[in-house]
Amino acid sequence: MNANIEKVTVVNPLEIPDWNNVLLECGQGTIFHSANWARLLSDSYGYQPEYLTVSENGILKGCLPVMEVNSFLTGRRGVSLSFSDYCGSIVTGTGEFQPLFERTLELGRKNGWRYVEFRGEKFLNNELPAKVYAHHLLELSREERVMHSRLRESTARNIRKAVKEGVTVGTCGTLQGVRDFYNLHCLTRKRQGVPPQSNRFFEKLHEHVISQGFGFTALARQGQDIVAGLICLHFGNNAIYKYGASNVEFQHLRANNLLLWETIKRCAQEGFCCLSLGRTDLDNEGLLAFKNGWGGSRTDLSYYRYDFTTDSFVCDREQDMEVYRIILKKLPVNILRMLGKLVYRHMG
After folding, report:
1. Fewer Cβ in 10 A, N or C end of the chain?
2. Residue 66 in contact with residue 84, Cβ under 8 Å?
3. 3-state class of 81 per DSSP?
């Protein structure tokens, strides 16, 4: 390591007033690296930020953000980074990543973590992944025709159908917009057999992220009915389609296609260079087909889990959740919301 580079230190970005500016000066980072996301996780679930950093002459040269999750149900562990789709280290090469990684392991052993999870860490691509997802990334252009030319014909046709059916899309940064989205979110999670995140989490998402200028809600309507919605977050040059939901009764309108298209156009006009469509389970053929239709690149998104019991990277021992999903699909939305309020704190 260069003699001018300081040793790896553990910092809390919430105690560094200009953390976001430091990230922007690095020319890297996503909303998940930001102090806003750290505040959301800390305020919503009480997670402790343990961000590993290294500097040169007082200038940040590397960062590996980690949250400590301490749960009486699921144990104590580190996650880089909780409820993010991906949150790799901010470094220029393996030489800068390695000391951050080694210091993370030291921290984990000291704090008694069961494991530490790395989401989308490119400098671990030679290790055994715990789980692999698909990731779609769209390159944006201020020229709408360029982006439209990349669309699959069926995607373009569905956009036209939504317009013909009278679907309109509006975007906003208001709390009411998030609340309207949350109603759809609960319906969608019930359909998937998964509890929704708590209403408190989404209100904190608005307070700490969206209201601070780092995202917006997009809602599709037909007449007075809200038929689909999404939440887009952004930081620096990068935007991500973080949450999506819809009312299945209006699926025939193809509102999701128009909704995403209008979001793509807004992100392009606001100067973002790319839009991530987030992670997708490899067995979710319907969602993969939808995301494949936008002309972006598709790559593997690997999660890595370092187990402190074996001192090695391990596969995720997946449980068959289908039985639970069948049961959850039958429960009323208010019961699912109560479950979500109870369990997400332990899932980060």
Report:
1. N
2. no
3. coil
- Name residue 75's amino acid: G
- Ramachandran category for residue 311: left, alpha or beta (phi over 0 → left; psi -120 to 50 → alpha): left
Angle, helices 322-329 vs 175-192, to 10°: value is 120
CATH architecture of 134-300: 3-Layer(aba) Sandwich (3.40)
Q: What is the DSSP letter of 181?
A: H
Rounded Cα gap, residues 313 and 306, in angstroms: 4
Q: What is the CATH number of domain 9-126?
A: 3.40.630
**Look-up of token digits 């104590």:** 76
Q: Where exactly does CATH 3.40.630.30 map onto the chain?
A: 134-300
Q: Which residue, among 228, 180, 238, has the nearest Cα to 206 in the 3D structure?
A: 180
Q: What is the largest CA-CA distance in the chain?
A: 65
pTM, two decimal places = 0.94
- pLDDT digit string, tens, across residues 31-69: 999 999 999 999 999 999 999 998 887 778 889 999 999
Which residues, 6+ apart, have CB-to-CB distance to 198 below 8 Å? 44, 337, 340, 341, 344
